[in-house]
Amino acid sequence: MLNSIKSFLDIPSPMSLPLLGHTYLFLPGGKYKSEKLTEAIKDISTKYGPIVRLKLGNTDIVVTTNADHTETLFRNEGIRPIRPPFPALYHYRKKTFNSVGVVPGNGEEWYRFRGGVNPLLKTSLINVYREQQEDVSRSFVNYLRNAVDDNYILYDTVEHLMNFAIEVTSLVCPGQRLRCISDEPAEQLKSASKDFMDGLYKTLIGPPIWKLFETDGYKQLKCSHQIIYRTIESYLKDFQKMYKTNPNFLKETNPFMYTLLSNKNLSQDDCNMLAIEVFLGGIDTTATTMAFTLHYLAQNESVQEKVRQNLSDDSYLKACIKETLRLRPTAGANSRFLPQDTVIGGYLIPKNTLVSAFSSITSHSEEYFKNADQYIPDRWLRNSNTAFHKFASLPFGYGPRMCPGKRLVENEMVILLREILKNFKLETDSAHIGMVYRMNRIAEKSINIKFLHTNH
Ligand code: HEM
Q: Per UniProt, where does heme bind (predicted)?
């Protein structure tokens, strides 16, 4: 058995160049575009197989498009999974606040912060917000009636849904409903959240010269962080007072803020950082996922009608969201640094190597999903008789580092979807809309949808 294990250098790899490694493939004029990384990796894996070795910058990366390999990766990720860090964000926060939050950190530091957001995964906690979430969804439906043009078309649905996402997230964090669906303040927060993602992306993909001077990307990251910090900090101060004077009231009305502020392992600045992360975590991801769900339902009239017949059934609405996330996941890959030497796909991969499991490829592959290109929410229903690989579609990641907002955001999207389908029949002229990488993956062009009143 041991003899059959091949070495790291045996992993297939495209031709690499001295100094550049495989970076040349993604440079301007190169074969691939970094904003179309999923398509690039799919092409590479068609030529070299499901496991490939790449050198990008100074980093060796093992890329896999096989769900068994993904499973092996996660089964061996350890109790403090190590994800690629965000060095510029880490640097800025450490220097300015001496507190880094859960997203950019790793190891024990990450673990301490993670304790602050884990309560979001408790159903009993997030259910407290249900009525308010329903109210925000009704406001969004009312807003839609006026936002469509004379032909009932809403252009750039993602932009409008970002306002929804900010307002619905604000119920939980910072714990005060920010009336953003139709009000002006949303614009500043919305552009700050976009700038933040842009700045994060620019500082991540370029050479780390922000260490020497403040590059445009670094400035964008810093300024947008300042805007969001100011908003969050002022609300948190009020909650700090409430926590001291009337903790039971806070516990009942805003259990997330209560658990955050009562966490003895977190300082005031730690709470501010975590609140920023919870606030930012769901804005573009929720808006993109909702817009694609509406797009797919608009395209598939019979599926839309079936969903409308099952509006009281959360599991059917949830299946629609899962199917959208299978076809259009906002994360292209799930990545970890291996905590120990690990055999993946028959190759011995050394400790500390970065392994990226391209779930955006496995989730779209005929190998794992029959009629993989079609939007079939039924496949996710318990009684559907379609068993598939548990690691083939992982839009929220997996394990101790899985997205802490998963349950919350699923609830928010189910509630909004129900409200929209109760009121509108959806139509679209658009056929295929792909995705491009920014920080998260987003729609490559505007998603325009016709919202006709159901009694039309
Ligand atoms: C459709 C919506 C969303 C999608 C598709 C999504 C997806 C993801 C993914 C793939 C990860 C990485 C997981 C891993 O490495 O295993 C992640 C991490 C994270 N997400 Fe989400 N997310 C969404 C919404 C949210 C929301 C609403 C929040 C806030 C409540 C949030 C907060 C976070 C945080 C803080 C992390 C970092 C966790 C850590 O490093 O321990 N996300 N998300």
A: 403
